[in-house]
Structure formats: C-alpha cells, structure tokens
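Our working data are protein records whose layout never changes between entries. The record below serves as our worked example for the rest of this section:
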Amino acid sequence: MSRGNTRQRIQDVALELFAERGYEKTSLREIAEQLGVTKAALYYHFKTKEDLVTSLFEDMVLGPADEVIAWAKAHQPTRLETKLEILSRYSACISNATPLVRFMHENQAALRDLTIGEQMKERMLLLLGLIKDEDAALTDQVRCSSALFTMHSSLFALEGTKADPEEKRKAALEVAQELVTAAHHGSGDTPPGRETGSARHE
C-alpha cells in the first residue's frame, strides 16, 4: 500500500473513532489498534493526535475553502450574483466533508484549544466578510452569518429526514442564498436563479 493510501486510511479510521467517542476520548493507540498497525507505523505519518486532526481539516475543509476565498477575492464580491456563487461553491466544498463538519460541531470545546480551531474561525470570518456588505446593518450581519451556519448545521441536523444528502445540501443552500439575498442592498443587481456556478459545473 502506498504512503498516500495509508495516510488516507488512517484519517478515515480516526474520523470514525472521533465521531463515535469524541476527540478527547480517542487515543492514537486506539486508532492504531483499529487499523491493525503498530503505533510506530502510525507515528510515521502523524506524530500527535493534533497533527492528525489538522491534516483532516487541511485536506477536507481548509484547502477547498481557501480555493473558494481566492475565487471570491478575484471576483470582487460586491454583486449579489457573486455572493450567491460563493455560497454555492462553499456548499459543494463542505458537502464532501460531512463527517468532519459534524465532528467540528460536536467537539467545539476541544477545537478551541487546537490551532486548527482558530484557523477554521479565521476562514469563517473571511467568508462572512465576502458575503456581507461592508456597512451592513446588524440584522443583515446576522442573516449572513446564519447563512453559513445553516449550510454547516444542516449536514447533521437533518439526519432524521428521508431526503438524500444532495437534497439536504440543495435545501440548505437555497435557504442560505435567501438569507444573503435579503441582506444584500447593492444597486444595479438582477437577482439570478438561486443555485449557480459549481453546483451545476466545476
């Protein structure tokens, strides 16, 4: 098995155990046992549990989010259409990291003590700044922050529904886009159809 495949297998098993037992109650020894490898083999890839969690966030959320942020900054997101496209692209980004987003919400206390928690907060603030008007009223700031929270929380809050993951993603994205549309007060915009951009194409 190649190094890359071993690394991904470690990440997958670790995320399962983190989701099942919580971050604090899961040890590297237990992850190694679940994988059927020695601790030395695990340490070859990840020296600490924090290194492992950091790699999950970097690969599954931070990297893709940075791509969305870079695209948004290049397109000067002042128009409503651009803001809705940011939401669409970010929705696609986090839909590929559902277990990790669930872990993030269920282990908020632990994440606050980890470097990765601060990095996630930084990305959320950057995204928020890109979808809200610079001089937005407090109620509009709440709408925009709620839009991001809606896309995150719906990944696990709707587990009891019969809808498939893609239907849930689209429903959450629609609500998020409605919130940002209501908060937008730019002039000269023609509101586009809701789901834009990467939801239809890369």
User: Anything to note?
Assistant: The chain has ten helices and no strands. The radius of gyration is 19 Å. The longest helix spans residues 49-74.
